[in-house]
């Protein structure tokens, strides 16, 4: 984690997190703030697999490549927004998520929605980062 800019904190004044996320993320002054378009589970050829967990894998690969392309790491991520059209296999998802982000995890919001941009997209993840 980039300790100079991003700090992930918890508060004893609210309920314990129900997942792998941090309630509070602090960004130091003079940091550069990045927002990213949502990433989906398309592979490098643009093919979107039917299997949800394969879309999970591809989405995190796309996020990794996106961060690397501008010299950022998962430690720079301050917020994760997740949208899914079907129930997430949390055991599988958290295995990939925890391997990617480590502990403590960034702040997170999850929503189940009826549809995303294309019918075959089952998962979209948006990240925010700071450096």
Automatic annotation (TrEMBL):
Pfam families (UniProt xref): Ribonuc_L-PSP
Domain of life: Bacteria
InterPro entries listed in its UniProt record: RutC-like_sf, YjgF/YER057c/UK114
PANTHER family, A to Z: BLR7761 PROTEIN, YJGH FAMILY PROTEIN
Protein name: Uncharacterized protein
Taxonomic lineage: Bacteria, Bacillati, Bacillota, Clostridia, Lachnospirales
